Amino acid sequence: MIIAIDGPAASGKGTLAKRLAEHFALPHLDTGLLYRAVGRVALDRGLELDDADATAEIAELLDVAELDEARLRGREMGEAASIVAAHPKVRKALLDLQRRFAHQRGGAVLDGRDIGTVIAPGAEVKIFVTAAPEIRARRRHLELEKRGDAPPYEEVLADIRKRDARDAGRTDAPLKPAPDAHVLDTTALDVESAFAAALLLTNRHKD
Ligand SMILES: Nc1ncnc2c1ncn2[C@@H]1O[C@H](COP(=O)(O)OP(=O)(O)OP(=O)(O)O)[C@@H](O)[C@H]1O
Ligand SMILES: Nc1ccn([C@@H]2O[C@H](COP(=O)(O)O)[C@@H](O)[C@H]2O)c(=O)n1
């Protein structure tokens, strides 16, 4: 079974994907980390994030085994990722490895922006997780506060709005629900309620 979880920044898709993967004992890939890693390497090398050829070359040589989540999670990397993710050549370079992951024997859970639309359009379960931008910003702000690294709430909200607009506005694989995705709005749901709703949707497809 392939479970495709998509949604905008800080919607809670990663949290849900991890929980579903644990529940069904399936491997999980957070595809945002791939784009974050490309952005990270480009910045480390002093390259322009707008340089489609240079960033695509980084994407082609990316070693998934070396993704260091802690280093890639920061705000700056989210912004860098969304810039390189708008290059069709970068997306093309990362396509095969995501498709191979999705189609491994036994199935997988992937979360990102284009899993249900591009990476695994045949996925048995597609969930598009969303929430009001102000709520997403509040959750992300809380998370950053806990890490001792929180800018003002307004900056977090502005980051989220900017990233959503870039991700939804690009020509290649824009952020949008697949026509057959279940839209799960978690604005008024805590983590447990959101997980229960996602589980219900997934089990409905399994039966
Ligand atoms: N339903 C919820 N209620 C309250 N907090 C939540 C909920 N879902 C997720 N969170 C919290 O919101 C924050 C963002 O969640 P998460 O990292 O899963 O989002 P994401 O969509 O994967 O983010 P990104 O796109 O930046 O990778 C985390 O701190 C998480 O614990
Ligand atoms: N399938 C995907 C996943 C991510 N992106 C881009 O990467 C940025 C960071 O993703 P997070 O999930 O870690 O927040 C995101 O803003 C997208 O630009 C993507 O394009 N496709």
Automatic annotation (TrEMBL):
<keyword id="KW-0067">ATP-binding</keyword>
<keyword id="KW-0418">Kinase</keyword>
<comment type="similarity">
    <text>Belongs to the cytidylate kinase family. Type 1 subfamily.</text>
</comment>
<dbReference type="GO" id="GO:0016301">
    <property type="term" value="F:kinase activity"/>
</dbReference>
<feature type="domain" description="Cytidylate kinase">
    <location>
        <begin position="3"/>
        <end position="195"/>
    </location>
</feature>
<keyword id="KW-0808">Transferase</keyword>
<dbReference type="InterPro" id="IPR003136">
    <property type="entry name" value="Cytidylate_kin"/>
</dbReference>
<keyword id="KW-0963">Cytoplasm</keyword>
<feature type="binding site">
    <location>
        <begin position="7"/>
        <end position="15"/>
    </location>
    <ligand>
        <name>ATP</name>
    </ligand>
</feature>
<dbReference type="InterPro" id="IPR011994">
    <property type="entry name" value="Cytidylate_kinase_dom"/>
</dbReference>
<protein>
    <recommendedName>
        <fullName>Cytidylate kinase</fullName>
        <ecNumber>2.7.4.25</ecNumber>
    </recommendedName>
</protein>
<dbReference type="Pfam" id="PF02224">
    <property type="entry name" value="Cytidylate_kin"/>
</dbReference>
<keyword id="KW-0547">Nucleotide-binding</keyword>
<dbReference type="InterPro" id="IPR027417">
    <property type="entry name" value="P-loop_NTPase"/>
</dbReference>
